[in-house]
Design goal:
Pfam families: 7tm_1. It is a multi-pass membrane protein. This is G-protein coupled estrogen receptor 1. InterPro entries: GPCR_Rhodpsn (IPR000276), GPCR_Rhodpsn_7TM (IPR017452), GPER1-like (IPR047143). Belongs to the G-protein coupled receptor 1 family. The chain is mostly helical and 375 residues long. It has one domain: Rhopdopsin 7-helix transmembrane proteins, CATH 1.20.1070. The radius of gyration is 30 Å and the shape is globular. The termini are far apart. The N terminus and C terminus are likely disordered.
């Protein structure tokens, strides 16, 4: 019967009546050192390399966002505010919605700089900072999504019910709608926060962003329901445009309108889908029993994925100015006039006008209803 000595970890076997050679004893420290070098150190090096790679990828994506998307969102939303306020006597109902949407998007774009430098999700380790950032971001996230949703409904009402909506689509009603949207955004954030905060007051690692009930509300109220409404309204708008001109074909203006509708739905879906899928996957997973509250945050478990989906969500606020205003004829005309007024030098004025005309050509169909203001 074979017996194994305490040195069986080195693969050395001793039988009764045999003497262990001295060479094995001298090799034991070497084998132990080799085991330590080959077993532990490479694993640590691999883990460190993986974290380093994730940091490099996150930094690269943050640089791309900061260089390309952030200037578009920051400057574009400021231009929407400045130009529309400068021509407030000509402000239409959609312009009022554009201004409020630009305010929400501008705040989100400014907040995105914090996320850009939050490569390791470090601020989620500080309960107060995490809760404050989550509250601030959720209010503006809800307001941005709610304004996009309401604007889709308003555009369908303006186009399909143009003869019967004059009594309901007034500036007073639009201002009231904007106030209710901001109130709904604040309520959708503060009411759940007040409810869950009472249940987690004694938790040192409590963060508003990690509460499962709040995350379910964010997915349903901040993505599923708005996307369903936006998709429905713009599909009805597209059907109205196609039906109105099916006998004589779509004119260039209507073709541009349909392309803008498609861009609106696709950009909203593409930008917000990763964030909500990321949250939904976490919600469908059961929390590990006995895990500390600090260790249950899915953003700690997948920092790179959380960083990417956050940047994708912020990209929607950067692209909204291009889709809703710069592709609309009303804002383009105001922008041309604003530049002409601000550029006193004739040569510079002609250069800016020529540049705008090359990038944004004038429309030749003045008889059509302007989609940028009527829809």
């Amino acid at each position: 019967m074979a017996l194994t000595s305490p040195t069986h970890g080195f693969g050395v076997e001793m039988r009764p009546g045999t003497v262990q050679p001295a060479t094995y004893n001298s090799a034991a420290p070497a084998l132990n050192l080799s085991h330590a070098l080959l077993g532990t150190t490479p694993l640590n090096q691999t883990a460190e390399l993986s974290e380093h790679q994730q940091y490099v990828i996150g930094l690269f994506l943050s640089c791309l966002y900061t260089i390309f998307l952030f200037p578009i969102g920051f400057v574009g939303n400021i231009l929407i505010l400045v130009v529309n306020i400068s021509f407030r006597e000509k402000m239409t109902i959609p312009d009022l919605y554009f201004i409020n949407l630009a305010v929400a998007d501008l705040i989100l774009v400014a907040d995105s700089l914090i996320e850009v430098f939050n490569l390791d999700e470090q601020y989620y380790d500080i309960a107060v900072l995490c809760t404050f950032m989550s509250l601030f971001l959720q209010i503006n996230m809800y307001s941005s999504v709610f304004f996009l949703t309401w604007m889709s409904c308003d555009r369908y009402i303006a186009l399909a019910r143009a003869m019967r909506c004059s009594l309901f689509r007034t500036k007073h009603q639009a201002r009231l709608s904007c106030g209710l949207i901001w109130l709904a955004s604040v309520s959708a954030t503060l009411v759940p926060f007040s409810a869950v905060h009472l249940q987690h007051t004694e938790e040192a690692c409590f963060c508003f962003a990690d509460v499962r009930e709040v995350q379910w509300l964010e997915v349903t109220l901040g993505f599923i329901i708005p996307f369903a409404i936006i998709g429905l309204c713009y599909s009805l708008v597209a059907r109205v445009l196609v039906t109105a001109h099916k006998h004589r074909g779509l004119r260039p203006r209507r073709q541009r309108a349909l392309r803008m509708i498609l861009a609106v739905v696709l950009v909203f879906f593409i930008c917000w889908l990763p964030e909500n899928v990321f949250i939904s996957v976490h919600l469908l997973q059961h929390a590990q029993p006995g895990a500390a509250p600090c260790e249950q945050s899915f953003r700690h478990a997948y920092p790179l994925t959380g960083h990417i989906v956050n940047l994708a969500a912020f990209s929607n606020s950067c692209l909204n100015p291009l889709i809703y205003s710069f592709l609309g004829e009303t804002f383009r005309d105001k922008l041309r006039l604003y530049i002409e007024q601000k550029t006193n030098l004739p040569a510079l004025n002609r250069f800016c006008h020529a540049a705008l005309k090359a990038v944004i050509p004038d429309s030749t169909e003045q008889s059509d209803v302007k989609f940028g203001s009527a829809v």
